[in-house]
Amino acid sequence: MAIKRDSYSADEHSILYAETGGCCPLCTMPILFQKKDSRKPSKGYEVAHIYPLNPTQSQATALVGYPVPSDINALENVIALCPTCHTKYDKDFKLDELIRLRKIKDGYLSEARAKQTASQHTIQEEVYEILDAIAAFDFDETALSPTNFNVSTVDKKLKTGMSPLQKHEIKIYAISFYVRIRDHIRTLEQQDQASVRILQNQINSYYLAMNKQNPENKDLVFNYVAQWMSAKTNKPILAAKVLTSFFVQNCEVFDVGTE
Prior knowledge:
Structural class: mainly alpha
Strand order of the largest sheet: 1-2
Largest sheet: 2 strands, antiparallel
Distance between the termini: 51 Å
Order of helices and strands: HEEEHEHHHHHHH
Shape: elongated
Number of helices: 9
Number of strands: 4
């Protein structure tokens, strides 16, 4: 018996539209458009099932061994696509395309969980001053000699679950700014050690929450921590990435990787 397609509520449509950022995830075309002589935008997307609602014989053959969702109509198994991409996906079904859409959708879900968790985590005001100081630093690649910095700590912590490119970015930030951030934090500790300690615990707490949600992907964990810090303080994301990289080296963020 064929499974009936659900009718999605206005709130559910809002979620599906918002997670795409307003563009079809496959072709990147806008999924809202403005008709001539109309003051209101029109919906230019359709709700597509990632795992087919009622697989055809050829689709069923391609899907052998691929897990079936517990609820085919759940929001976790649908995504907003433009009509052209939706039609092509259904009529020219390929398992590789399903895997691609599944990865995109999982990214949307991961980001939504991170934002929800971020709203529940506060951050000390001291981080504002630290980020402002980072943004004002002059870049001087001779400011730190190799003898003052043990880069192996970063290598050990990022041994598993992180891409080489992301690891390289963190190492560059840590090498370039570690001493200056450390000295700035020491100055703040002389003024109010308890507040700085609370700040470190807050960053570590949010890291642990992100690591629990994304245990195999340290790229996401690192970027979610930086995004949370930037959003909470309304400070530049680059400054937040620099400070997150400092805490990678300074034993406050990221566990040592498995040997």
